[in-house]
């Protein structure tokens, strides 16, 4: 289990995040208006949104846990399960399809040794599909963490992944 | 995209994706003239100027921007809460224009929002940006801080007595958040289902208050209209409606990209002169003129005028103005299957035809693509298009948008579908049907 997962288990939110959420809630017309950004911040800190953190966030915003979970599970970018240190999002939409996304994906899966939706055994990468990244003029496009790549041809995969792996260390 | 002419390409002329302008540099290059002029006018005069400019929304539906603003109740800002929202969800596959504006020139958007806020007397604005635009988010947040520090946002802007501030909201990702009422629902911290209209957002929007939602490209036009006047703006265009348009292409073009051209430019010019034509060895077979939710047009329309009415007459829509090219070596069935996968996945689940119909459409397309389809499957697809597609069967325009490429594709690529089915390993047997009926 990674450190991020351990901290996320059962633990309360750190005081600075609590204060941030309270400030955000005060800026909104209604506290729940801060919910999506609060969940995003939890995830930015811990990589994903654990039950304990969800419950604590819900208490601060005066929402029921089920209500907030309904939001957390609705949006594509909020993770309710642990993910790898870096999330790789490969665009599977139309322009990337035309430009050979499927071949790029095959190579990527082979390089990482996982299927789409899975995390590498060393916990480095989670590979997820994503809809159009607005980088269609550089298709096939891909996001690793916050870094945008494209066009990503199958033959580029090895170098990109090796470099990304070094960057995290 | 260097050496753009600010007289002809006002939106992109100051875009710099390496280092966007700060407020001072922007001023030196002619920025902030629009907001200065607007603040010296009455709100009603600003709305009139924008109406006369014949600016139509660049987010896909093409509604007159000035008219939209005129529906907002007229009380001054301190008497009633009102909101301005910039729609930067941009999750429509094949559309990538707003990204360039937020990454390369966020102050232009901010100036546009200040002017719009003044026109409807709103004190608060939100920029709703899709969550995957990490660089855009960073640039916008920085630009908002810089604009605030320089006195362009906050209390008493330019000593006019007008207060306005902006918050940047990163989305957590769902295509439906781009639909304006769903977007407002998301900002209220709820699952982003669309709302029924009326009330329209201009009367009852964010937290029930009057709200104007416009696309990022739409707002980015506003400073130029105010700085140079509506007549100048009308003169930019090659058609009845005003201004330039960010056009673009993706697919097998030599140089795919976004180009700022007079509204009403032909696809021929966009594709051949700007994007360098098709890649060697590829021929244009058909295209979606304005993103994933528009109907296919065949290669015989390759020189179509890309204004609002012409693609509609041809059976499609201008949409976001960014064409997706289908070449002669890509399977149209695979392409439609890819599109329907997106729409099925991104349905918000509120209405049955959309929630249940689109995954079913996707399954039928997979069967046909993989050589297991039958004549009956083809008939089912046609039924689905007829039943799910028309406006009014569902709560929002997601389902009609989803059906547009399918419905048009079934007609345009009828021979491809027929061939796939002829080669299929399965055959329809009349016996099956009568057995089931018995
Ligand atoms: C499913 C769906 C997705 C949409 N996505 C976007 C979007 O990402 N950006 C956008 O500006 N408009 C989008 N729209 C259109 C908006 O509902 C709305 O018409 C637009 O933001 C109004 O701005 P405009 O008048 O400046 O075009 C979408 C509409 C639908 C039905
Ligand atoms: S048409 Fe689809 S996306 Fe729109 S409200 Fe209905 S289920 Fe949701
Ligand atoms: S379709 Fe892949 S980035 Fe747009």
UniProtKB/TrEMBL annotation, chain A:
Positions contributing to [2Fe-2S] cluster binding: 91, 96, 132, 136
Keyword Metal-binding in annotation: yes
Keyword terms: 2Fe-2S, Iron, Iron-sulfur, Metal-binding
InterPro entries assigned: NuoE-like, NuoE_dom, NuoE_N, Thioredoxin-like_sf
Cofactor: [2Fe-2S] cluster
Gene3D superfamilies, alphabetized: Glutaredoxin (3.40.30.10), NADH-quinone oxidoreductase subunit E (1.10.10.1590)
Top-level taxon of the source organism: Bacteria
A Pfam family that the UniProt record links to this protein: 2Fe-2S_thioredx
Single annotated GO MF: metal ion binding
Transmembrane segments: none
SUPFAM superfamilies attached to this UniProt entry: Thioredoxin-like (SSF52833)
Cofactor descriptive note: Binds 1 [2Fe-2S] cluster.
Family: Belongs to the complex I 24 kDa subunit family.
Name the record gives this protein: NADH-quinone oxidoreductase subunit E
UniProtKB/TrEMBL annotation, chain B:
Annotated GO MF terms: 4 iron, 4 sulfur cluster binding; FMN binding; metal ion binding; NADH dehydrogenase (ubiquinone) activity
Keywords: 4Fe-4S, Iron, Iron-sulfur, Metal-binding
InterPro entries: NADH-UbQ_OxRdtase_51kDa_CS, Nuo51_FMN-bd, Nuo51_FMN-bd_sf, Nuop51_4Fe4S-bd, Nuop51_4Fe4S-bd_sf, Soluble_ligand-bd
Entry cofactors: FMN; [4Fe-4S] cluster
NCBIfam families: PRK13596.1
Family: Belongs to the complex I 51 kDa subunit family.
PANTHER family registered for this protein in UniProt: NADH-QUINONE OXIDOREDUCTASE SUBUNIT F
Name the record gives this protein: NADH-quinone oxidoreductase subunit F
Organism: Kozakia baliensis
Classification of source organism: Bacteria, Pseudomonadati, Pseudomonadota, Alphaproteobacteria, Acetobacterales
């Amino acid at each position: 289990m990674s450190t991020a997962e351990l901290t996320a288990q059962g633990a309360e939110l750190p005081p600075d995040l609590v204060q941030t959420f309270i400030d955000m809630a005060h800026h909104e017309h209604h506290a729940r208006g801060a919910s999506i950004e609060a969940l995003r911040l939890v995830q930015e800190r811990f990589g994903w949104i654990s039950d304990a953190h969800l419950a604590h966030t819900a208490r601060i915003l005066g929402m029921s846990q089920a209500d907030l979970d309904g939001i957390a599970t609705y949006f594509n970018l909020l993770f309710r399960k642990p993910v790898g240190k870096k999330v790789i999002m490969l665009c599977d939409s139309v322009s990337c399809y035309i430009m050979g996304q499927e071949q790029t994906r095959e190579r990527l899966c082979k390089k990482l040794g996982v299927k789409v939706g899975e995390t590498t055994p060393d916990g480095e990468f989670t590979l997820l599909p994503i809809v159009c990244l607005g980088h269609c003029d550089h298709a096939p496009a891909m996001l690793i963490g916050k870094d945008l790549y494209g066009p990503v041809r199958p033959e580029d995969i090895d170098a990109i992944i090796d470099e990304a792996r070094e960057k995290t260390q | 995209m260097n050496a753009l002419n600010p007289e002809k390409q006002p939106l992109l002329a100051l875009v710099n994706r390496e280092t966007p302008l700060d407020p001072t540099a922007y001023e030196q290059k002619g920025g902030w003239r629009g907001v200065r002029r607007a603040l010296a006018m009455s709100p009603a005069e600003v709305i009139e100027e924008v109406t006369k400019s014949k600016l139509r929304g660049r987010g896909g539906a093409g509604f007159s921007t000035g008219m939209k603003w005129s529906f907002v109740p007229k009380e001054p800002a301190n008497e009633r809460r009102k909101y301005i929202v910039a729609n930067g969800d941009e999750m429509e596959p094949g559309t990538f224009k707003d990204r360039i504006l937020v990454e390369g020139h966020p102050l232009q958007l901010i100036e546009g929002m200040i002017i719009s806020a003044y026109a409807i007397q709103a004190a608060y604005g939100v920029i709703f940006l899709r969550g995957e635009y990490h660089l855009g988010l960073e640039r916008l947040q920085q630009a908002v801080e810089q604009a605030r520090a320089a006195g362009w946002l906050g209390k008493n802007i330019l000593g006019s007595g007008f207060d306005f501030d902006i918050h940047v909201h990163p989305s957590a990702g769902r295509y439906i958040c781009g639909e304006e009422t769903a977007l407002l629902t998301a900002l209220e911290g709820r699952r982003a289902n669309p709302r029924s209209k009326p009330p329209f957002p201009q009367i009852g929007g964010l937290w029930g208050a009057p709200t104007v939602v416009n696309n990022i490209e739409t707002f980015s036009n506003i400073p130029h209209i105010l700085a140079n006047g509506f007549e100048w703006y009308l003169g930019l265009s090659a058609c009845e409606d005003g201004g330039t348009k960010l056009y673009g292409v993706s697919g097998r073009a030599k140089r795919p990209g976004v180009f700022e051209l007079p509204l009403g430019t032909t696809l021929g010019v966009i594709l051949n002169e700007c994007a360098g034509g098709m890649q060697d060895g590829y021929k244009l077979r058909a295209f979606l003129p304005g993103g994933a939710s528009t109907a296919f047009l065949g290669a015989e329309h390759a020189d179509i005028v890309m204004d609002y009415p012409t693609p509609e007459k041809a059976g499609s829509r201008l949409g976001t103005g960014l064409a997706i090219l289908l070449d002669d070596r890509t399977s149209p069935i695979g392409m439609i299957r890819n599109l329907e996968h997106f729409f099925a996945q991104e349905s918000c689940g509120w209405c049955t035809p959309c929630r249940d119909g689109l995954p079913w459409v996707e399954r039928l397309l997979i069967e046909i693509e993989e050589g297991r389809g039958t004549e009956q499957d083809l008939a089912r697809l046609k039924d689905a298009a007829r039943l799910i597609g028309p406006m009014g069967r569902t709560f929002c325009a997601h389902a009609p948008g989803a059906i547009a490429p399918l419905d048009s594709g079934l007609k345009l690529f009828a021979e491809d579908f027929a061939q796939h089915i002829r080669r299929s390993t399965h055959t329809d047997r009349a016996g099956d049907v009568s057995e089931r009926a018995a």
